[in-house]
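In this section we walk through a basic example: taking a raw amino acid sequence and producing a predicted 3D structure, encoded as discrete structure tokens. The instruction is simple. Fold the sequence below.
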Amino acid sequence: MSARARECDVLVVGGGINGTGIARDAAGRGLSVVLCEQHDLAAHTSSASTKLIHGGLRYLEHFEFRLVRKALMEREVLLDAAPHIVWPLRFVLPHEPHLRPAWMIRAGLFLYDHLARRRRLPPSETVDLGRHPAGAPLRRSDREGFLYSDGWADDARLVVLNAVDAHERGARILIRTRCARVVRERGAWSATLIAHGGERQAIRARSIVNAAGPWVAAFLDQSTPVRARRAVRLVKGSHIVVPRLFDHSFAYIFQNVDRRIIFAIPYERAFTLIGTTDVEYHGDPARAAISAEEVTYLCELGSRYFARAVTPADVVFSFSGVRPLLEDESADPTSVTRDYRLELEADGPALLSVFGGKITTYRRLAEDALARLMPLLGAKGAPWTHAAPLPGGDLPGGDYAAYRAALAQRFPEFAPALLDRWSRAYGTRLNRMLGAATCEAELGEEVVPGLHAAEIRYLRRTEWAHTAEDILWRRSKLGLHLPPGSAAVLDAWLAQSPADSPS
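The resulting token sequence is shown next.
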């Protein structure tokens, strides 16, 4: 590392959505930034969400109007910034009169439609599920339903693209590198970073952002001289993936007698994603896994609504993430606020800790973090991310359908399924991944079905992918579509091929 790289304005600890969002914003304002992540980018909470960019309709019941409005405003920003990985989704809410009266749902949807400006999304409406296509897969379609709009995102890729943009604006991204210790030293922070292989390096930082997610309090207490002043409530959310339960493009939001809701969402063409649970968690966040009770709960609730029963035997994949929510007086984990708080320790060099938050509001959180840090660093630089596309998101007119159609004309030799996946994952960055290739034969070896050497090299060189898990489950979701043993084949290939990671 060069002498200059050993010093920075901001050291960000944590490579989830909040950490990469802050690193991107800071680098774009001209600050020198180092980000370290102990595992892979989006290795935990940020790749285990329900993958919704939404205001949170149910939060209206808890009177969190400010949070919902803020999230709805951000929904529009993200739909503009990354139309390849964030897109509109229409939700169906079957009415259950014994749980919530129709007037209450209509009032909530009216607020949801009008709390913030909508440009891309149609308003809510009432439908007869006996006539609407979304009623066909349901056990009971002889009832009223409600439609409303929100957004869907590839959460792990959203993290990676923020890191890519931060890097291209000058940030140094260090994955599989743990921040072991920080101490105050001559008006700055002296940080010891330890890479996965044991290599140590020292960073002198004028400020530190603690965006360690579920580890936010543990990092303060174990690695810094600062003690956490705010508690974090760890809540595990689990999801199951089953073979496709319906053929249309609508998603569902289902109510349960315990006042909780779950979503059933079209996923990866051939599957349906069902989740989430809310369970108090007290273990290591890195080891979170779905329990048999959670699987049963999600299957039973799905079966209560769908004509086709959902059983544990149907589950082809599951994932769990631990959400670091702000501790409050709520007895029910479902009721704990999804808003965030920033705690600034400014007695000496600044240390800013991020508590709570949700993926939809990460960009706004980053702006708030920089508003706190910039004056302390004596730096100037206006907010800029609200109007800046993420890498690959600069589609002409923001029109994904038109972009995808143009790719079919430009690359007739590629299979439509490949172009579908690539255009969603890379957007306009597809040109960089393909290079001069115009057919599959020019992409090099097909290491596992649908994944060629050229794409693997791009992911290693540009997106910090090291392992088969990084590539098959976070940079893509190919793991759902490949035969058993594919990960071992890919890991063996990676071990034999020289890496060319981002510098």
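Looking at the output, two observations stand out. The domain at 4-45+156-231+337-387 is CATH 3.50.50.60 (FAD/NAD(P)-binding domain). The two ends are 10 Å apart (CA to CA). In the next section we compare this with other chains.
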